[in-house]
TrEMBL record:
SUPFAM superfamilies: Metallo-hydrolase/oxidoreductase. It comes from Candidatus Marsarchaeota G2 archaeon ECH_B_2. Coiled coil: none annotated. InterPro entries: Metallo-B-lactamas, NDM-1-like, RibonucZ/Hydroxyglut_hydro. It comes from the Archaea. This is Metallo-beta-lactamase domain-containing protein.
């Protein structure tokens, strides 16, 4: 199986590494101008496909300038060891909170494998970044030096405290700032996976993104959108809608797990992914969100 690669605008490519041998699970982005930046490396199981796709465009590993790891969740970063040894000159851009996970990803990996059932065995291992690659890790930049292109590295910690996004001119590579992958009654399901989801910060991240007046938003789950204001507004409205649903079900006396199961009945996904996977991931997000709502309510009291 090959990765699917699509040029979404001049020199900007979306790479779908076909995780679980199917499209629609995760999108990586490859920017070729003025520097070569791979935004997220994907899991280890698809690392060879990603390398092959980029080499197919005519680039060698040594020509990659930056590996941008948005956050250290396994789907986004599990292939870092393989990809970093291929891209042997690349600086590895991460959040300061990610650095220790690159040398010891066992906690991140364990969290994934304990939640994802049979899919855990299909994501590959998560090898730590070699000590010889560590000097290439950079966690303190607020922008990438890209000449006259405006670039900003933005901490977006609502989804995970170790998430960073990349703004390039009017485009935001937004990782998991929002997702369009799952909908509950046609509202976007937030990327609220426990334990690191932070509800107030998640809203702040979306407000920040909205204020950037973007003309393109690229997210990991899934794809590039030329109507970012619309999508971000939809994500904010969906949060309010979902919170209302959660609060009324909690008021009826349902437990968090029961609230999640009730809401899951309205689940649909675009693009279609495996139903069992969708159920697992959506339920995790719902539990994370419900806990977030409970936490915010208890802090207000
Ligand atoms: Zn994530």
């Amino acid at each position: 199986m090959e990765a699917k690669i699509e040029e979404i605008s001049d020199g900007v490519y979306m790479i779908d590494p076909c995780l679980f041998d199917s499209m629609g699970y995760i999108a990586l982005y490859f920017i070729t101008q003025p520097k070569r930046i791979l935004f997220d490396v994907g899991p280890s199981v698809t690392a060879e496909r990603v390398i092959h796709a980029i080499e197919g465009l005519g680039y060698k590993g040594e020509q990659i300038d930056y590996l941008f790891v948005s956050h250290v969740h396994v789907e986004h970063s599990g292939g870092i060891s393989k990809i970093a040894s291929w891209a042997s000159n690349a600086k590895i851009i991460v959040s300061p909170a990610s650095v220790r996970h690159l040398t010891d990803p066992s906690k991140m990996y364990q969290a994934y494998t304990s939640s994802y059932g049979r899919f855990a065995s299909l994501i590959g291992d998560y090898q730590p970044l070699s000590q010889s690659s560590m000097p290439r890790v950079v966690s303190t930049l607020s922008e990438l030096p890209l000449g006259d292109r405006r670039s900003r590295i933005i901490q977006c910690v609502g989804h995970a405290h170790h998430q960073v996004c990349l703004q390039l001119d009017g485009s935001l590579l937004g990782a998991d700032i929002l997702s369009t992958q799952f909908r509950i009654n046609d509202q976007l399901l937030p990327t609220s996976t426990p334990p690191s989801f932070n509800y107030p910060k998640y809203t702040e991240d979306l407000d920040t993104a909205l204020a950037l007046n973007l003309d393109r938003l690229m997210v990991s789950h899934y794809g590039a959108f030329d109507n970012p204001t619309e999508i971000i507004t939809k994500a904010l409205d969906s949060l309010k809608w979902l919170r209302h649903q959660v609060e009324s079900l909690l008021k009826e006396g349902l437990l968090a797990d029961e609230v999640a199961d009730t809401l899951l009945k309205g689940l649909n996904c675009t693009p279609p992914v495996d139903n069992e996977y969708a159920q697992i991931k959506a339920k995790l997000s719902l539990i994370g969100f419900i806990n977030g709502v409970i936490k915010v309510r208890s802090e207000k009291v």
